[in-house]
Amino acid sequence: MWAKKLGKELGNPTRSVAGWLVSKLLTVRNQVLEENAVQLCGIQPGNTVLELGHGPGLGLQTAATLLTEPTGHLIGVDYSQYMHEMAKERMKELISSGKVTLHHCDVAAMPLADSTVDKVFHCNCYYFWPDLNQGATEIHRVMRSGGLMVTTLRLSHVATMAAKRVMPGDNWRPEVYMTALEDSGFTDIRMEDKQHKNITFQAIFATALK
Ligand SMILES: C[S@@+](CC[C@H](N)C(=O)[O-])C[C@H]1O[C@@H](n2cnc3c(N)ncnc32)[C@H](O)[C@@H]1O
User: Fold this and answer.
1) pLDDT at res. 149
2) 167-207 confidence digits (pLDDT tens)
3) Residue owning the nearest CA to atom 12 of ligand 1
4) Is 7 in the pocket of ligand 1 (CB under 6 A)?
């Protein structure tokens, strides 16, 4: 019962006591994953960069500092109204200046034109997508050919949560996600172990081929 409730809040945090606690947990626990996803993307100052399921917005904040050229643009999508509003507050100056755009929408249906995004990153997000193929196909659609996507996760933590049924089904398994990426037209898909101070995490890389 608690596992189902926690999974629901992690997958779509709501404006509630549970949602607030989840937002605090994400802010404290996932900063390393967010910051490393941004670094591993190799963002160039004039890139268009997209974060999927940004949650409270820590990764958006880091990525925005790298987009120093006038053409550099950052987009975030999250289908939690609560997370969308929290990130909007965090990024309000950069939204006003036009550097950042946030969309309250599903990864599977983004209001973005075809082949316009250079880099995509996300952390702790794909396990909650009901249809990985639909999500991967939509990401591939919006990416430029040769664009890089990076996903960071702490696999041991995710496996522990999955064993407790916080995430139902098998979509949390990296190999299931990586197969969906391959089927959607990504290439050079690989998972690497990474270290940040005393924290081990995994990074999945995929390049959009068109
Ligand atoms: C566990 S939280 C992770 C948040 C942040 N990336 C982090 O690591 O702290 C998952 C986030 O992904 C969002 N999310 C899950 N599935 C989504 C989907 N299909 N479309 C858009 N956002 C989604 C949720 O609303 C939530 O904000």
Assistant:
1) 98
2) 889 999 999 999 999 999 999 999 999 999 899 999 999 99
3) 53
4) no
Task: List, for the chain, all residue ranges whose pLDDT scores fall below the cut of 70.
Answer: 1, 22
Q: Which atom of ligand 1 is nearest to the CA of 106?
A: 20
Asked whether the beta carbons of 184 and 120 are under 8 A apart, the reply is no
Ligand 1 centroid to residue 171 C-alpha, Å: 14
Residue 30: what pLDDT? Answer: 83
Ligand 1 neighbourhood includes 53 CB (under 6 angstroms): yes
What's the farthest any 2 CA atoms get from each other in the chain?
49
201 close to ligand 1 (CB < 6 Angstrom)? no
- Domains, the chain, in order of start with CATH, read 2-208 (3.40.50.150)
Would you state the pLDDT for residue 62? 97
CB atoms within 10 A of CB 2: 9
140-158 in b/e burial notation, b at 16+ Cβ within 10 A? bbbbbeebbbbbbbbbeeb
Tell me if 107 CB under 6 Å of ligand 1.
Answer: yes
Tokens coding 19: 């949602």
Per residue in 6-22, pLDDT tens? Answer: 777 778 888 877 777 76
Q: Which of 5, 31, 128 to mutate to test the pocket of ligand 1 (most atoms within 8 A of CB)?
A: 128
